[in-house]
Amino acid sequence: MLSHGMKQTGSISLNHLQGVIFAVLNPWVAVGILLLLAFFATYMTALSWADLTYVLPATSLGYVLLALVARFVLHEHVSPLRWLGIALITGGVGFVAGGPALTTHPHTAAPVDEPCAVAASPLLAKDARNGAPGVEL
Amino acid sequence: MKSLYTWSAILAIVFASVIGDVLLARAMKQVGDVGALWRRAGLGVVIGRTLGNPNFLFGVTAMAVAFFSLLFALSWGDVSLVAPAAASLTFIGNAVAAKIFLHEKVDRRRWIAASLVAAGVALLAG
After folding, report:
1. Cα pseudo-dihedral A128, A97, A40, A70, rounded to 10
2. CB-based contact B94 A92, cutoff 8 Å
3. pLDDT tens sequence across A89-112
4. How many domains does chain A have?
5. Which of A128, B18, B99, B122 could be joined to B106 by an S-S link, Cβ 3.0–4.6 Å?
6. A17 in the same domain as A69
7. Residues of B with CB below 8 A from A62's CB?
8. What residues in chain A have per-residue pLDDT under 50?
9. What distance, in Å, lies between the first and last C-alpha atoms of chain A?
């Protein structure tokens, strides 16, 4: 649930990341920066819970959201090629979110799960809880 | 000549943002579970420990380099080339870098996901 919320927040802000690139000099820039900060904070939080290769594809849902907003709010034309792009991203995110990727979550990772995930995150998390500095693996 | 500049800038974006992402991911693994730390020690400690992490600072610097490379790339090339090329190459580069430097277990599922997302982003941003 938490990571789902994080992903949604990240996605929405990623739209504004695109917007800022295309319109650096518009009056909404302050709002954009605030949302970027929010995106960054939630992105960092997500990275503290899951692998980079898990978080990154999930944030790409922002592109899908961007296209959907363009289509249904701004009534822009979305070409078939772009719909294919939306399908590919959605499929890719489904791929990474669907299975063992979730075991990288320290809360759900059992000691017998993916050896690398166990080696990477929960150990470090446990370590941080003990107040010791992070271990280089 | 102009396309050489553009592609150099695109590669600079990809390199800088991959380095940035890897450093930020490493920093947050060192900081540990943000939720648990927040409950235990408060938000100030979370922010302090994150901002005080050298990997975090280098990561943010790399992200800034990536952003300025993007500005350069956009001044030389069309956004319809720069945006999809940089974004999709970054996804692939990140998967490779995460495997090498973060020792993440990038299994077949994640390779497929990275490739699908990269292709999708290329189509969508193009």
Report:
1. -170
2. no
3. 888 888 877 655 444 444 444 333
4. 2
5. B99
6. yes
7. none
8. 1-12, 20, 23, 101-137
9. 29
